Every structure is written in structure tokens, then in C-alpha cells.
Amino acid sequence: MAELTIKDVRKSFGAVEVLKGINLDVRTGEFIALVGPSGCGKSTLLAIIAGLEKASSGTISIGRRVVSNVAPKDRDIAMVFQSYALYPTMTVRENMMFGMEARGVPVELREAALKRVSSLLQIDQLLKRKPGQLSGGQRQRVAMGRALVRDPKLFLFDEPLSNLDAKLRVEMRAEIKKLHQQIGKTTVYVTHDQVEAMTLSSRIAVLNKGELQQFDEPQTIYDHPANMFVAGFMGSPAMNFLKGRLKGKGTTQQIVLAEGSADETTLKLSRGVAAVDGTGVIVGIRPEHFTQALPKAANIINAIVTLVEPTGSETHVAARFGATEVTAKFFPKQAPKLGEAVKLAVDMDRVCLFDAETETALA
Amino acid sequence: MADTLTLDQKEARSAARRHFSSRFLIYGLLGIFSLIYLLPLFVVFFNSFRSLPEIAQNGLIAFPKSFTLDAWIAAWGSYCVNGRCEGMAQNFWNSVYLTIPATLISTLLGALNGYILSKWRFKGSELIFTFMLFGVFMPGQIALMPWAYILGTTGLNKTIWGLVLVHVVQGISFTTLFCRNFYVNIPDDLIKAARIDGAGFWRIFYKIILPLSPPILIVTVIWQFTGIWNEFLYGVVLTTGKNQPVTAAIVAFASNGQNVREYDVMSAGVLIGALPPLLVYFFGGKYFVRGLTQGAIK
Questions:
Q1: From the CA of A136, how many Å to the nearest CA of chain B?
Q2: Is B91 helix (H, G, I), strand (E, B) or coil?
Q3: What pTM does this model have?
């Protein structure tokens, strides 16, 4: 059953259309990440789901109820803000009680909810403090606690981790995931961080320029991006894009890179695509799909190493191939040295192919 | 080596000397200026405790050679103006009854206006704010005739409540400006979070906005209190005799048609009239400066 249905939602601020007809169905208990670069409309979409902004057209349904004209407080939602938005003059306890007080929840139930949530999030010992006396991570926890006490149908997170330092962010990310596994609430989570989206969500909705690019499970999005935007946005270091031309038909299809130059290279496709001979294509190769070529291996790119970046667990190597630079991942011990000529074997089973004109994936 | 100073030490000493002399200059100048500024107050203060014959003998500006509280007692309760020998006590209380409600009401309305104009913007709210700002720059005399007309037709003419109404309305543009500019810095996320939590317009106002407001409310209250207390024009035009505020009474003291200028009583009267704003600023001044310079709430 769909817990949240977004149907053809559009939003304009004056002449600027920031959402251009978004359709999404979120199933009960799902964890959905809305991801995209800044300005893609993801936060606006979340505000529309929350009722803080009004859509220019289209409908939002929560449960079976159309809520497009329902006030935020009556939508049965809770939201965690990027700034946490804790009420500065209230203690943690008062912050968490505020919503129930406003709704006139009986006192015994309030106390019970407070007890349940504060022990779940381990913030019992903070209840008497004010937000100003809390660390970033503690504030984050209290903000989630304030959302949890209400036991809503739908959880909304607006970039909740972006104000934390890198280490704490990873910790809190894991906690949010555990929390979701524990309570199983339907969640919509806005982030610009593709790693957060990959690690947390059951499905990812990638937005760009107000349009939904792809909505699918994280691994599918990673392995089979619908277009070059999704391919380039998801994954770090980013996917390599090489210009080429399709040659041949059926099972003998191949791609010629850097056609006519000294670096001309041919890659044999391991599966056929439905595009005609001579089509301009973009080959997308993730950095981990390069390997140092064994002698006699096929599908090899010859390149010169221009940059070596060790990260400890792996080493990122940038290398010049013709007029473009490609990035490959190596085990630290096998990494080539600066200036070295490398033969990079391409894992042809896992490359992505895009139409050079439409930038969409070729099936 | 032990006896001679190193170059570093010599430099440090001369730097300290330079620092000291520049400080001395700064504080010396500041002292002189504040003395000049305070001199009239000293003269008035001393004269209020001198006897009238002594003032006549030694001149207005002289160190006191006598001490008496007669002038204060007369100014408060028995000095005669236009044949009415009641001093200024009644006018002093008029000012109290006028200033306190006018200050509180205009401050509360300003806070409410500021809250709406910063957190519940609507179509045209910026325009309304701009129009309200005209009130800040408008000289009071312009509104004198309209007010006389309004108070006349509503029957509030010559009453304290009439003056309260005038000062509330005249003060709203200032109080709104202060509060609105303070509330603009309160993060909008707080309001959004409260709306999702189920709080409405009023609950957000008194549970979230007002508890954050003391810095600006103190500024507004002090500003309004001193402004309304010291106001003279409306007081003297819109009320008469027993109903006039203390500022009007002081002027009546000074322009009293008698042969002898009673400087002792006039001095005491001025000080009585100046005391409340002085006390307010004395106790609240620290918060006034802090509130004016305080930035956004984190």
C-alpha cells in the first residue's frame, strides 16, 4: 500500500518553475532518499509534502487521504530540520513535550512517550538541558526525539546531518539506519550527499532541475543509471565518460574511442544495444571497473598517469587517455606511479552506454 | 647582564609608557567633556537645595552655602500656579498613569506587529511595513490637529486616556520597527517546526517568540517610557490644568507670572520631573545597549 503518493506536483516561484511535474509512490515502511545537487528542488518538494509550501498544482496523499489543502499539523507527519530548529528557550524535555502539549495529549501519555523515546535515543540524562548546552550530535538526537514522540505516519528529514563533522555524520547515519530498522516508519530523507542516499535508503529518487531523473533501489541506480546525470551524480570518484562511435550490428557491436587519432581504441560490447551503426555514444566506466591489464587482455585503454591519490584503503589514479582524463581505483600496492604508462582493462560487462545526444541510457 | 636592560625590555617599557600616556589623554578628554555635559545638572541639583535668598545673594551659579528641603516640598505639594497651590504631585501621577499603560500597550502591539511582519508575511505586508515606517520620520506637530479633532469627537478630550491613545498610536511605528527587525533574525525553521508540532499563531507567539524577546522588549520599553514621559507638545495642547502631565507642569512653573523667579522650586521641579526616566535608564541602560547591539539568536 502506498503511504505517500505524489502526483504531478508542480511548483513555481514567479516565473521560475522549480518542480516540473513530480510523481512518486512511497510504500509503507520505506526509506526514500530525495537526492540531487543544490537547487534541484528536493527541499521544496519536502516542504510541499510537509505542507509548509503549497504546490502550484498536483496532489499529495498521505495514507489514503489527499492532504494538499490540509495544514501541516493535521498531516500526521514529523520533520527533522537541517538546523534542528530546537526551541532555544526550552529544555530538551519541553522541546519534546511541545508538540504533544499543543495537541492536548493527556499528561500520562506524554510522559510515557517521553520515556520511551528518550531511552530509545539515549538522551535521558539531557532532558533538563537547553539546546545551547548540547553538542551537535546531541542536538541532532533531540531533534529526532522531538519527531519520534509524536509517533507520526510519515517522517521527513531535511539534510539532517549536513551540520555535523565528518566522523559524527557517519555515526549518526548508522544510528538513523538502525532506528529505521527498529521502528520501520515510512521516511522521506532529503540529502545532497549520495553516500547517505546509498547507505540509508530502500529507494532513491534522483532529482535535477526540478525533474525526477530516476526512482529505484540504490544498487540499480548505481549499476544502471537512467541517464548521464544520474551516472555522474551517484558514485565517488565519479563515473568516467568517454566519447565514442558505435560500429557493427547485433552480437558484433563494438565502440571506437578517439576515432581517427593515434589513441584510437576499440571496445567490444558484451551485450547488444538497440542503436544503429554509427550512432554517437558515451561510454560510462566506473573507476572500479578498470583493472591493470594482463598480457593479451582485450578492451584496453592506454593512458599516462597524471595524478596519484592514496586514500589508504585504495588509491585513485588519474590518467590521460587522448584528450580526456580517466580515473581508476587500484589496490594501494598495485597502483602505478606518476608519469607511468598504464594499460587499463575495461570490465565490459559493467560499462554503461548513453546516447551522445539525448544523454539517456541505451538499452 | 643582570643590571643592564636588554633591547626587548627597553622597547617594552617605552611601549608601556606610550600606552599609558595615550590612555591618559583619552580619559582626560572624556572626563572634560562629560563634566561640561553634566554641569547644568549640577547647577540645578545644587540650587534645588539652596534657599532662595542665598541664591539671590550669591548668584545662580555658585557653590551652595545653605541647605534646605523646602524647595522640594513646595515643588511637590504646595507651589502655586495660576492660583492653584497644589504643587506638581497631581501632574507627576498623571504622567505615571499615562506613561505606564501607553508604554506597555504600544510595546505589546509592536511585538505583535513585528511578529506578523516578519514571520507571517502576506501579500502587501512589506508595503504595510514601509507605510508604518513613515510614522518614525513624521514630526509630532503634523498630527496635532487630527488628534485634537479625534479626541474631541470621541469625548476623550482633556483626559489621561486620550493621551494614552495618542502615545500608543504614535509609538507603534517605532515599536514595530524595533521588534520586526529583531524577529527577522529568528530562524524561520523554528516557526515551521512549531507549525508541524501543532502550534498555532498565538501559541508560537507566546511560547517561542516572546521568551526570545527580552533583549528587544527592554529596548522598546525604555525607549517608549522615556519618550512618552518627556513628551510635552501633546500634553500641553490636548489637556489642561489638573490633567496635564509633569512636563507641562514644569513649564507652567517657569512661566508663572510672579515678580520673583523662584529658582530653587523650579530646580526641584525639574529634578522631580526628570527622576523616573533617569532611574529607568540607570537600572536598564546596560540592557538597552546590549539589546540594541545584540545580533541574531543562535
A1: 13
A2: helix
A3: 0.83
